[in-house]
Design a protein that fits this description.
The protein is an alpha/beta fold. Helix content is about 40%, strand content about 20%. The strands form 4 sheets. Strands 7-6-5-8-9-13-12 form a 7-stranded mixed β-sheet, sandwiched between helices. Strands 1-2 form a two-stranded antiparallel ribbon.
Length: about 325
């Protein structure tokens, strides 16, 4: 029997302790072999967590046009990617027409397109919040936040992405999902905040908003000519982010073909999006070669040096 004296004079039976912790040791060795993981020290034990990214967006096609490069890149690296979409895009056009089909039919078409695009981008799971396109900014806030909190707590992502505070070009649904997601990241970490699903509180490490650069803005303008949105008889236009305000730059040029393939899954919208095919090489590089974000908060890093990885500080 292997024994050793503890400094306090007591004998320690190491064979007994080895047997007791053999299962934990095996689990630790398996976790340590995970290639893409975040790690930290908890009470002297090295704990490894699978990296997870969640996008919380408003409509089908937001995942491809808005975050397609990031989703494809991180999925290819072994990061688990998740998508929560607030609506099924029921008020979107089908082909060259709008309003000739009922909302439910349009929603079914666009849901199928989203699921096909998500598969191409390597998204692990797609969930819907079941709101109607165009109505999200009138949804019950408590209910909507609770739905997002439930998904965050269930999945436990370290990184969450949503729209910026201006909704890219003033779209009310984009603005609403940005506000709701931001609130949900706060509530998800609060153990006193209760939802119908009994999931433990989870603290998101990093929250990001999409940030259009001037180059991306000009590319969309070249394709769509006049990118604007009318709300309450007020004209809203896209405004690019100043370069200095962008905190995070992700190189996605290698994933441009994958993103374009995902965009093409949204066949009901291609009467609009096919114009993207005819852009200059410079505009294509701006659209697909990189993804830019604003880091709303981070619990693991900071400073003004620009990031090149959404998981910086986590791996």
């Amino acid at each position: 029997m292997q024994q050793r004296k503890h400094p306090n004079g007591k004998s320690i039976n190491f064979n007994r302790w080895k047997t007791r912790f053999r299962g934990v040791s095996c689990m630790y060795q398996e976790l340590k072999q995970l290639k893409y993981s975040s790690s930290h020290i908890y009470k002297g034990i090295h704990v490894v967590e699978k990296l997870k990214l969640m996008c919380v967006l408003a409509h089908p096609d937001d995942e491809s046009l808005g975050t397609g490069g990031a989703l494809a890149k991180y999925a290819s690296e072994g990061v688990e990617t998740y998508l929560v979409t607030a609506t099924r895009g029921e008020r979107g056009r089908i082909g060259d027409k709008r309003g000739h089909l009922d909302l439910a039919t349009v929603g079914q078409i666009r849901e199928a397109e989203l699921l096909a695009a998500a598969e191409i981008l390597g998204v692990r799971e797609v969930q819907f919040l079941d709101y109607i396109d165009g109505d999200l900014d009138r949804a019950d806030v408590s209910e909507a936040v609770a739905k997002i909190v439930s998904h965050i707590r269930r999945v436990q992502p370290q990184v969450v992405i949503t729209f910026d505070a201006n909704g890219s070009y003033g779209h009310p649904d984009h603005i609403a999902i940005s506000q709701l997601t931001t609130a949900a990241t706060v509530c998800a970490a609060d153990s006193s905040y209760k939802t119908l699903n009994d999931h433990a509180a989870h603290r998101v490490s990093k929250l990001y908003q999409m940030a259009w650069t001037r180059g991306k803005f000009e590319a969309y303008q070249a394709a769509f000519k006049d990118l604007k949105f009318n709300v309450d008889e007020v004209e809203r236009r896209a405004t690019p982010w100043p370069d200095w305000a962008i905190t995070t730059f992700i190189d996605t040029v290698a994933y441009a073909p994958t993103v374009w393939q995902a965009v093409q899954c949204h066949q009901s919208q291609m009467s609009i999006y096919r114009e993207l095919q005819h852009l200059s090489d410079e505009h294509h590089r701006a659209l697909w070669g990189a993804q830019e974000f604003y880091r709303v908060f981070s619990l693991v890093n900071g400073g003004r040096q620009r990031e090149t990885d959404l998981f910086e500080g986590l791996r």
